[in-house]
Automatic annotation (TrEMBL):
Coiled coil: 89-127
GO cellular component terms, A-Z: plasma membrane
Organism from which the protein derives: Streptomyces globosus
Compartments (UniProt record): Cell membrane
Pfam families linked: PLDc_N
Full protein name: Cardiolipin synthase N-terminal domain-containing protein
Topological category with respect to the lipid bilayer: Multi-pass membrane protein
Residues in Cardiolipin synthase N-terminal domain copies: 12-56
Keywords, sorted A to Z: Cell membrane, Coiled coil, Membrane, Transmembrane, Transmembrane helix
Membrane-traversing stretches: 35-55
Length: 131
């Protein structure tokens, strides 16, 4: 039982530290970038999680107030669904107008080419009939 615990406890600690590191905002990771912390946790799977918990993450807000990520979480603009967002809908209308104009130009060009092909075919048939 103790042998299993000696393997399971560091593994569980590593998994917990890894997930905690991934969920931590970049501005709350101390001393090193978050990617480096992930590598340290995974490479040194016995010591890495302990170092992460001890020195890698801000655990308390600074003396002056909140951490930057807490401020951003509280001051976000409320998300609006695309079908309720008038700016998005107007941009769709503008894109639709551009697409319709391109489609009309393409259709006109296609008609012109078809007419040219018909004229060429009629001209070749007349040439064959005269020969």
């Amino acid at each position: 039982m103790i042998r299993a615990l000696m393997f399971i406890l560091p593994l569980a600690l590593t998994i917990y530290a890894f997930i905690d590191c991934l969920n931590t905002p970049e501005d709350e990771a101390k001393h090193l970038p978050k990617v480096v912390w992930v590598i340290i946790i995974l490479l040194f799977w016995i010591v890495g999680p302990i170092v992460w918990f001890a020195a890698g993450k801000m655990r308390r807000p600074p003396v002056g107030g909140r951490t930057p990520s807490e401020w951003h979480r509280n001051h976000r603009h409320e998300w609006v669904a695309p079908d309720d967002n008038p700016e998005f809908l107007s941009s769709l209308r503008e894109e639709n107008k551009k697409d319709e104009a391109l489609l009309k130009d393409w259709e006109a060009d296609l008609r012109r080419r078809e007419e040219e092909l018909k004229r060429r075919e009629q001209g070749e048939e007349k040439d064959k009939g005269q020969s």
